[in-house]
Design goal:
Strand order of the largest sheet: 2-1-3-7-5
Helix content: 25-40%
Shape: globular
Number of strands: 7
Number of helices: 4
Radius of gyration: 13 Å
Largest sheet: 5 strands, mixed
CATH class: Alpha Beta
CATH architecture: 3-Layer(aba) Sandwich
Distance between the termini: 28 Å
Oligomer: single chain
CATH topology: D-Maltodextrin-Binding Protein, domain 2
Structural class: alpha/beta
Order of helices and strands: EHEHEEHEEEH
């Protein structure tokens, strides 16, 4: 796994436009982070993979098919991927819903998950 080395004064968190008021502000404040929004779970996860941001948070439900491919790519890159509670993602359940999606650089993953709780 190769997580790009990043030098920033403050972490950068990305979330969806529909979740910024729910998840984004709280986590950004807890981490003294910059906050940005954009669409697509895949795009946001790849922003973390490429080192452009430090974490992607989505504490609400998402369809499994929206997170499975980005999750595998992020894990292969050495990032921490969990649901909003910090648990591993589980696929192929009777209801194909993931209870949140969090992709973080290892050095801030615990802080991000603590802020979501």
């Amino acid at each position: 796994p190769v997580v790009p080395e990043v030098q920033r004064e403050r972490p950068v968190i990305v979330t969806g436009r529909s979740r910024v008021r729910i998840d984004g502000y709280r986590v950004a404040e807890a981490l003294d982070a910059e906050l940005m929004t954009c669409g697509s779970a895949g795009v946001k996860a790849m922003l973390v993979v490429t080192g452009q941001v430090d974490s992607y948070i989505h504490a609400g439900p998402l369809w499994e098919w929206d997170v499975c491919a980005p999750a595998i790519v992020a894990e292969a890159a050495g990032l921490i991927v969990t649901d909003a509670g910090g648990n591993p993602l589980i696929y192929n359940k009777s209801r194909a819903v993931a209870p949140g999606f969090v992709v973080s650089r290892p050095e801030i993953a615990d802080q991000v998950l603590a802020a979501l709780r």
